[in-house]
Write a structure and sequence with these properties.
The protein has 13 helices and twelve strands. It is of the alpha/beta class. The chain has two domains: 3-242, Type I PLP-dependent aspartate aminotransferase-like (Major domain) (Aspartate Aminotransferase, domain 2, 3-Layer(aba) Sandwich); 245-378, Aspartate Aminotransferase, domain 1 (Alpha-Beta Complex). The chain has a seven-stranded mixed β-sheet with strand order 1-7-6-5-4-2-3, sandwiched between helices. Strands 8-9-12-11-10 form a five-stranded mixed β-sheet.
Protein backbone atom coordinates (compact mmCIF):
# COMPACT_ATOMS: atom_id res chain seq x y z
CA UNK A 1 0.00 0.00 0.00
CA UNK A 2 0.99 3.61 -0.54
CA UNK A 3 2.01 5.74 2.47
CA UNK A 4 -1.23 7.75 2.56
CA UNK A 5 -3.33 4.58 2.74
CA UNK A 6 -1.13 3.08 5.46
CA UNK A 7 -1.41 6.28 7.49
CA UNK A 8 -5.23 6.20 7.37
CA UNK A 9 -5.65 2.53 8.25
CA UNK A 10 -2.56 1.60 10.32
CA UNK A 11 -3.37 -0.01 13.64
CA UNK A 12 -7.08 0.69 13.42
CA UNK A 13 -9.68 -2.06 13.32
CA UNK A 14 -13.42 -1.73 14.02
CA UNK A 15 -14.21 -2.44 17.65
CA UNK A 16 -15.29 -6.12 17.77
CA UNK A 17 -17.95 -5.44 20.39
CA UNK A 18 -19.71 -2.45 18.85
CA UNK A 19 -18.33 -1.97 15.34
CA UNK A 20 -17.03 1.50 16.28
CA UNK A 21 -14.73 2.65 13.48
CA UNK A 22 -12.51 4.61 15.88
CA UNK A 23 -10.41 2.87 18.51
CA UNK A 24 -12.13 3.21 21.91
CA UNK A 25 -10.45 5.05 24.76
CA UNK A 26 -9.92 2.29 27.32
CA UNK A 27 -9.86 4.53 30.38
CA UNK A 28 -9.03 1.86 32.92
CA UNK A 29 -6.14 1.14 35.25
CA UNK A 30 -6.59 -2.63 35.44
CA UNK A 31 -8.29 -5.58 33.74
CA UNK A 32 -10.37 -8.35 35.32
CA UNK A 33 -8.79 -11.80 34.97
CA UNK A 34 -10.75 -14.99 34.45
CA UNK A 35 -8.41 -16.87 36.78
CA UNK A 36 -4.93 -16.26 38.21
CA UNK A 37 -2.65 -15.86 35.21
CA UNK A 38 -5.53 -16.21 32.74
CA UNK A 39 -6.55 -12.96 31.03
CA UNK A 40 -7.53 -11.50 27.68
CA UNK A 41 -4.06 -10.20 26.95
CA UNK A 42 -4.22 -7.27 29.33
CA UNK A 43 -3.41 -7.18 33.04
CA UNK A 44 -2.45 -3.70 34.18
CA UNK A 45 -2.50 -0.49 32.16
CA UNK A 46 1.15 0.40 32.78
CA UNK A 47 2.10 -2.82 30.98
CA UNK A 48 -0.55 -2.90 28.28
CA UNK A 49 -3.61 -0.93 27.21
CA UNK A 50 -5.72 -1.63 24.10
CA UNK A 51 -5.71 2.01 22.97
CA UNK A 52 -1.94 2.22 23.37
CA UNK A 53 -1.54 -1.12 21.60
CA UNK A 54 -3.45 0.21 18.59
CA UNK A 55 -1.24 3.30 18.52
CA UNK A 56 1.95 1.26 18.79
CA UNK A 57 0.81 -0.89 15.87
CA UNK A 58 0.14 2.26 13.88
CA UNK A 59 3.53 3.76 14.75
CA UNK A 60 5.31 0.67 13.47
CA UNK A 61 3.27 0.61 10.27
CA UNK A 62 3.82 4.24 9.28
CA UNK A 63 7.58 3.98 9.93
CA UNK A 64 7.87 0.73 8.00
CA UNK A 65 8.96 -1.13 11.14
CA UNK A 66 7.86 -4.23 13.02
CA UNK A 67 7.44 -2.87 16.54
CA UNK A 68 6.32 0.42 18.05
CA UNK A 69 6.41 1.63 21.65
CA UNK A 70 4.67 4.76 22.96
CA UNK A 71 6.03 6.86 25.83
CA UNK A 72 4.79 9.76 27.90
CA UNK A 73 7.03 12.22 26.04
CA UNK A 74 9.80 12.37 23.48
CA UNK A 75 12.33 12.85 26.27
CA UNK A 76 10.93 9.73 28.01
CA UNK A 77 11.50 7.78 24.80
CA UNK A 78 15.07 9.12 24.65
CA UNK A 79 15.56 8.16 28.30
CA UNK A 80 14.48 4.58 27.51
CA UNK A 81 17.07 4.28 24.73
CA UNK A 82 19.78 5.56 27.05
CA UNK A 83 18.85 2.92 29.63
CA UNK A 84 20.05 0.27 27.18
CA UNK A 85 23.57 1.43 28.08
CA UNK A 86 25.90 0.76 31.01
CA UNK A 87 28.64 2.74 32.76
CA UNK A 88 31.69 3.00 30.52
CA UNK A 89 29.68 2.96 27.29
CA UNK A 90 30.19 5.78 24.81
CA UNK A 91 27.71 7.68 22.64
CA UNK A 92 28.38 9.68 19.50
CA UNK A 93 25.83 12.43 18.92
CA UNK A 94 25.31 15.48 16.74
CA UNK A 95 26.81 18.74 17.97
CA UNK A 96 23.69 20.46 16.60
CA UNK A 97 20.77 18.90 18.44
CA UNK A 98 17.65 19.58 20.49
CA UNK A 99 18.54 21.21 23.80
CA UNK A 100 16.40 18.83 25.83
CA UNK A 101 18.32 15.84 24.48
CA UNK A 102 21.65 17.54 25.20
CA UNK A 103 20.48 18.28 28.74
CA UNK A 104 19.42 14.68 29.33
CA UNK A 105 22.73 13.37 28.01
CA UNK A 106 25.04 15.75 29.87
CA UNK A 107 23.14 16.48 33.10
CA UNK A 108 21.63 13.06 33.79
CA UNK A 109 23.50 10.25 32.05
CA UNK A 110 27.05 11.59 32.14
CA UNK A 111 27.05 11.23 35.94
CA UNK A 112 26.24 7.54 35.54
CA UNK A 113 29.44 6.96 33.61
CA UNK A 114 28.21 7.34 30.02
CA UNK A 115 30.66 9.29 27.84
CA UNK A 116 29.40 11.51 25.03
CA UNK A 117 31.17 12.72 21.90
CA UNK A 118 29.42 15.62 20.13
CA UNK A 119 30.60 15.85 16.53
CA UNK A 120 29.54 17.09 13.10
CA UNK A 121 27.49 14.06 12.01
CA UNK A 122 27.06 15.50 8.51
CA UNK A 123 30.65 14.30 8.02
CA UNK A 124 30.74 10.52 8.53
CA UNK A 125 34.51 10.63 8.94
CA UNK A 126 33.99 12.61 12.15
CA UNK A 127 31.95 9.72 13.54
CA UNK A 128 34.64 7.24 12.52
CA UNK A 129 37.29 9.42 14.15
CA UNK A 130 35.78 9.15 17.64
CA UNK A 131 34.59 5.54 17.42
CA UNK A 132 36.11 3.22 20.00
CA UNK A 133 35.51 -0.34 21.26
CA UNK A 134 33.23 1.25 23.87
CA UNK A 135 30.95 2.97 21.35
CA UNK A 136 27.48 1.54 21.89
CA UNK A 137 25.17 4.16 20.39
CA UNK A 138 25.19 6.72 17.59
CA UNK A 139 22.49 9.38 17.90
CA UNK A 140 21.35 11.34 14.87
CA UNK A 141 18.91 14.16 14.26
CA UNK A 142 18.30 14.79 10.58
CA UNK A 143 17.23 17.45 9.81
CA UNK A 144 18.75 18.90 12.98
CA UNK A 145 17.11 21.26 15.40
CA UNK A 146 17.42 24.19 14.72
CA UNK A 147 20.06 24.53 11.96
CA UNK A 148 18.52 22.02 9.55
CA UNK A 149 21.74 20.08 8.99
CA UNK A 150 21.42 16.79 7.11
CA UNK A 151 23.24 13.57 7.96
CA UNK A 152 23.50 10.62 5.58
CA UNK A 153 21.60 7.92 7.49
CA UNK A 154 22.76 5.05 5.28
CA UNK A 155 26.41 6.08 5.55
CA UNK A 156 26.23 6.45 9.33
CA UNK A 157 24.36 3.13 9.59
CA UNK A 158 27.24 1.41 7.79
CA UNK A 159 29.72 2.85 10.29
CA UNK A 160 27.53 1.89 13.25
CA UNK A 161 27.13 -1.68 12.09
CA UNK A 162 30.88 -2.01 11.51
CA UNK A 163 31.56 -0.90 15.09
CA UNK A 164 28.69 -2.87 16.62
CA UNK A 165 26.88 0.25 17.83
CA UNK A 166 23.16 0.91 17.67
CA UNK A 167 21.99 3.77 15.47
CA UNK A 168 19.04 5.79 16.76
CA UNK A 169 17.59 8.50 14.51
CA UNK A 170 15.37 11.26 15.86
CA UNK A 171 12.93 11.61 12.96
CA UNK A 172 10.74 14.27 14.58
CA UNK A 173 11.46 17.08 12.09
CA UNK A 174 10.83 14.94 9.02
CA UNK A 175 7.98 12.71 10.24
CA UNK A 176 7.42 9.20 8.84
CA UNK A 177 5.71 10.71 5.80
CA UNK A 178 8.92 12.34 4.60
CA UNK A 179 11.62 9.96 5.87
CA UNK A 180 11.93 6.36 7.08
CA UNK A 181 15.32 5.77 8.76
CA UNK A 182 14.76 2.04 9.38
CA UNK A 183 14.78 1.49 5.63
CA UNK A 184 18.16 3.23 5.50
CA UNK A 185 19.76 1.02 8.16
CA UNK A 186 18.83 2.64 11.48
CA UNK A 187 18.13 0.35 14.44
CA UNK A 188 15.73 2.66 16.31
CA UNK A 189 13.61 5.59 15.17
CA UNK A 190 12.50 8.14 17.74
CA UNK A 191 9.69 10.67 17.54
CA UNK A 192 8.40 13.36 19.76
CA UNK A 193 4.82 12.45 18.89
CA UNK A 194 3.84 15.78 20.39
CA UNK A 195 4.91 17.34 17.12
CA UNK A 196 3.86 16.23 13.61
CA UNK A 197 2.33 12.88 14.62
CA UNK A 198 -0.16 14.51 16.99
CA UNK A 199 -0.22 17.61 14.85
CA UNK A 200 -2.63 19.72 16.90
CA UNK A 201 -0.58 20.95 19.89
CA UNK A 202 -2.84 19.14 22.35
CA UNK A 203 -0.79 16.17 23.55
CA UNK A 204 2.65 15.33 24.97
CA UNK A 205 3.99 11.95 23.83
CA UNK A 206 7.00 10.08 22.43
CA UNK A 207 7.57 6.98 20.34
CA UNK A 208 10.20 4.41 19.40
CA UNK A 209 10.05 2.09 16.38
CA UNK A 210 12.37 -0.81 15.63
CA UNK A 211 12.63 -4.09 13.70
CA UNK A 212 14.73 -6.28 15.98
CA UNK A 213 12.55 -8.39 18.33
CA UNK A 214 15.26 -8.65 21.00
CA UNK A 215 15.69 -4.88 20.99
CA UNK A 216 11.93 -4.49 21.25
CA UNK A 217 11.84 -6.76 24.29
CA UNK A 218 14.61 -4.79 25.99
CA UNK A 219 12.88 -1.48 25.36
CA UNK A 220 9.47 -2.86 26.35
CA UNK A 221 10.96 -4.08 29.63
CA UNK A 222 12.27 -0.55 30.26
CA UNK A 223 8.92 0.96 29.29
CA UNK A 224 7.02 -1.37 31.63
CA UNK A 225 9.50 -1.22 34.50
CA UNK A 226 10.11 2.54 34.50
CA UNK A 227 6.51 3.41 33.74
CA UNK A 228 6.85 6.45 31.45
CA UNK A 229 3.76 5.44 29.48
CA UNK A 230 1.08 7.66 27.91
CA UNK A 231 -2.53 7.54 29.02
CA UNK A 232 -5.24 6.15 26.73
CA UNK A 233 -6.69 9.58 25.92
CA UNK A 234 -3.28 10.80 24.73
CA UNK A 235 -2.91 7.64 22.64
CA UNK A 236 -6.31 8.29 21.09
CA UNK A 237 -5.32 11.86 20.21
CA UNK A 238 -2.12 10.74 18.46
CA UNK A 239 -4.02 7.99 16.62
CA UNK A 240 -6.44 10.65 15.41
CA UNK A 241 -3.61 12.98 14.45
CA UNK A 242 -1.85 10.31 12.41
CA UNK A 243 -4.88 9.96 10.14
CA UNK A 244 -4.22 13.39 8.62
CA UNK A 245 -0.41 13.27 8.74
CA UNK A 246 0.00 13.01 4.97
CA UNK A 247 -2.39 15.87 4.27
CA UNK A 248 -0.78 18.13 6.83
CA UNK A 249 2.78 17.31 5.77
CA UNK A 250 2.02 18.11 2.15
CA UNK A 251 0.76 21.55 3.19
CA UNK A 252 3.67 22.06 5.60
CA UNK A 253 6.06 21.32 2.71
CA UNK A 254 4.22 23.61 0.32
CA UNK A 255 4.12 26.51 2.79
CA UNK A 256 7.69 25.85 3.90
CA UNK A 257 8.90 26.13 0.31
CA UNK A 258 7.10 29.46 -0.19
CA UNK A 259 8.25 31.03 3.07
CA UNK A 260 11.86 29.87 2.79
CA UNK A 261 12.23 31.39 -0.66
CA UNK A 262 10.44 34.58 0.40
CA UNK A 263 12.72 34.98 3.43
CA UNK A 264 15.79 34.49 1.26
CA UNK A 265 14.75 37.40 -0.95
CA UNK A 266 13.94 39.76 1.92
CA UNK A 267 16.43 42.65 2.10
CA UNK A 268 16.60 42.55 5.91
CA UNK A 269 17.08 38.79 6.22
CA UNK A 270 20.53 37.24 6.29
CA UNK A 271 21.05 33.49 6.23
CA UNK A 272 18.06 31.16 5.93
CA UNK A 273 18.47 27.57 7.13
CA UNK A 274 16.21 25.23 5.14
CA UNK A 275 17.30 21.94 3.60
CA UNK A 276 15.25 22.43 0.42
CA UNK A 277 17.59 24.99 -1.10
CA UNK A 278 19.66 23.47 -3.89
CA UNK A 279 22.81 25.09 -2.48
CA UNK A 280 22.21 23.69 1.02
CA UNK A 281 25.24 21.49 1.88
CA UNK A 282 22.95 18.54 2.59
CA UNK A 283 20.55 19.03 -0.31
CA UNK A 284 21.75 16.01 -2.31
CA UNK A 285 21.48 13.70 0.72
CA UNK A 286 18.12 15.16 1.74
CA UNK A 287 16.78 14.68 -1.78
CA UNK A 288 17.87 11.05 -1.67
CA UNK A 289 16.55 10.08 1.77
CA UNK A 290 13.54 12.39 2.14
CA UNK A 291 10.34 12.77 0.14
CA UNK A 292 10.00 16.48 0.89
CA UNK A 293 11.77 19.21 2.85
CA UNK A 294 9.16 20.03 5.46
CA UNK A 295 8.06 23.22 7.16
CA UNK A 296 10.88 23.73 9.67
CA UNK A 297 13.43 26.48 9.08
CA UNK A 298 15.53 29.06 10.88
CA UNK A 299 16.86 32.44 9.85
CA UNK A 300 19.05 35.34 10.95
CA UNK A 301 18.49 39.01 10.30
CA UNK A 302 21.19 41.12 8.68
CA UNK A 303 20.96 43.28 11.79
CA UNK A 304 21.94 40.36 13.98
CA UNK A 305 21.38 42.05 17.33
CA UNK A 306 19.42 40.13 19.90
CA UNK A 307 17.21 43.16 20.46
CA UNK A 308 16.13 43.25 16.82
CA UNK A 309 15.44 39.51 16.84
CA UNK A 310 13.34 39.85 19.98
CA UNK A 311 11.37 42.68 18.40
CA UNK A 312 10.51 40.43 15.46
CA UNK A 313 9.69 37.52 17.76
CA UNK A 314 7.26 39.68 19.73
CA UNK A 315 5.63 41.36 16.71
CA UNK A 316 4.01 38.51 14.80
CA UNK A 317 0.26 37.91 15.03
CA UNK A 318 -0.23 34.59 13.22
CA UNK A 319 3.11 33.08 14.23
CA UNK A 320 2.68 32.38 17.96
CA UNK A 321 5.77 32.82 20.14
CA UNK A 322 5.97 29.40 21.75
CA UNK A 323 8.09 26.31 22.15
CA UNK A 324 7.27 23.08 20.26
CA UNK A 325 6.60 22.60 16.56
CA UNK A 326 4.67 20.52 14.07
CA UNK A 327 1.16 21.73 14.83
CA UNK A 328 -1.32 23.03 12.31
CA UNK A 329 -0.67 26.56 13.58
CA UNK A 330 2.57 28.39 12.84
CA UNK A 331 5.01 29.00 15.70
CA UNK A 332 8.02 31.29 16.07
CA UNK A 333 10.77 30.48 18.53
CA UNK A 334 14.03 31.90 19.93
CA UNK A 335 16.26 28.83 20.43
CA UNK A 336 18.91 30.61 22.50
CA UNK A 337 16.43 31.44 25.29
CA UNK A 338 13.83 28.74 24.71
CA UNK A 339 14.38 25.26 23.23
CA UNK A 340 18.19 25.35 23.41
CA UNK A 341 18.76 27.44 26.53
CA UNK A 342 20.13 24.39 28.38
CA UNK A 343 23.13 24.24 26.01
CA UNK A 344 25.98 26.48 27.24
CA UNK A 345 26.28 29.64 25.15
CA UNK A 346 29.85 28.91 24.07
CA UNK A 347 28.73 25.51 22.76
CA UNK A 348 25.78 27.04 20.91
CA UNK A 349 27.95 29.69 19.28
CA UNK A 350 30.63 27.16 18.35
CA UNK A 351 28.03 25.03 16.58
CA UNK A 352 26.58 27.98 14.65
CA UNK A 353 23.53 28.71 16.81
CA UNK A 354 23.67 32.47 17.26
CA UNK A 355 21.86 34.46 19.92
CA UNK A 356 19.79 36.14 17.21
CA UNK A 357 18.67 32.97 15.40
CA UNK A 358 14.89 32.68 14.88
CA UNK A 359 13.21 29.31 14.28
CA UNK A 360 9.92 28.84 12.46
CA UNK A 361 7.49 25.96 12.48
CA UNK A 362 5.43 26.78 9.41
CA UNK A 363 1.85 25.64 9.83
CA UNK A 364 -0.93 24.92 7.36
CA UNK A 365 -2.50 28.37 7.16
CA UNK A 366 -2.60 30.31 3.89
CA UNK A 367 1.01 30.98 2.92
CA UNK A 368 0.28 34.54 1.77
CA UNK A 369 -1.12 35.40 5.20
CA UNK A 370 1.97 33.95 6.87
CA UNK A 371 4.25 35.96 4.59
CA UNK A 372 2.30 39.13 5.34
CA UNK A 373 2.63 38.45 9.06
CA UNK A 374 6.40 38.02 8.89
CA UNK A 375 6.74 40.98 6.56
CA UNK A 376 5.02 43.26 9.05
CA UNK A 377 7.12 41.92 11.94
CA UNK A 378 10.46 42.22 10.13
CA UNK A 379 9.55 45.64 8.76
Amino acid sequence: MKPATIIIHAGVEPDPGTGAIMTPIYQTSTFVQEAPGKNKGFEYARSQNPTRQALETALAAIEGGRFGLAFSSGVAATDAVMKLLAPGDEVIAAADMYGGTYRLFTKIFEKYGIRFHFVDTTRPEEITRVCSPNTRLVWLETPTNPLMNISDIAAVAAISKKTGALLCVDNTFASPYLQNPLQLGADIVLHSSTKYLGGHSDVIQGALVMNNPDLREQLYFIQKSCGAVPGPMDCFLVLRGIKTLHLRMERHCENGHKLAHWLRQHPKVGKVYWCGFEDHPGYAVASRQMRGFGGMMSFELKDDSVETAKRVLSSTRLFALAESLGGVESLINHPATMTHASIPREERIKNGLSDSLIRLSVGVEDADDLIADLSAAIG
